[in-house]
Amino acid sequence: MSHDVHKVRPFEHPGEGRRRAKATPKGRQVDPTASHEIEQLLGDRPRRRDLLIEYLHLIQDRYHQISAAHLAALADEMKLAFAEVFETATFYAHFDVVKEGEPDIAPLTIRVCDSLTCAMLGGEKLLEDLQSASGPGIRVVRAPCVGR
Fold first, then answer.
1. At what angle do helices 68-78 and 82-91 cross, to 10 degrees?
2. Which of 22, 70, 88, 124 is the most exposed place for a label (fewest CB within 10 A)?
3. Distance between CA 96 and CA 82 in Å, rounded?
4. What is the mean pLDDT of residues 9-16?
5. pLDDT for the residue numbered 139
6. Mean pLDDT of 32-55
């Protein structure tokens, strides 16, 4: 019996054609302004993955929100996948992530705990009162307990 019968013939995917498509960078294109801002904000700090949350805090503190452009620039600067940086930022309630096309967040945010204990002690009423009394430039939102 010949071994040629069991040989695997090379297979070219029908969509490949003779020439490969031009290589494009993976992930998002990084906005040069956001890239410069992130570079300046991080300064000479190390670009280690374990510092990601600390750097997200730096962005939040400086800009009072975290834009998609800053997330892409941070991912690029730290050589991390955009998805990893985005998922980390959106996992924590204290980061205010603003997606592309969304309006900027008000300069002042008031967070009211929505835990059962705080609700029993008047948290819902406080939330309603603050939402109705707050003016422009103030955002009142529910938040996980910050006193845990």
1. 120
2. 22
3. 17
4. 57
5. 82
6. 96
What pLDDT score does 6 carry?
61
Length of the chain: 148
Three-state SS at 22: coil
Is the CB of residue 110 less than 8 Å from the CB of residue 80? no
pLDDT at 132 over 90: no
Q: Provide the H-helix boundaries in 1-148.
A: 32-42, 52-63, 68-78, 82-91, 116-120, 123-133
- DSSP class of residue 14 equals T
**129 close to 138: Cβ distance less than 8 angstroms:** no
Handedness of CA 134, 66, 27, 91 (dihedral sign): negative
Q: What are phi and psi of 34, to 5 degrees?
A: -65, -40
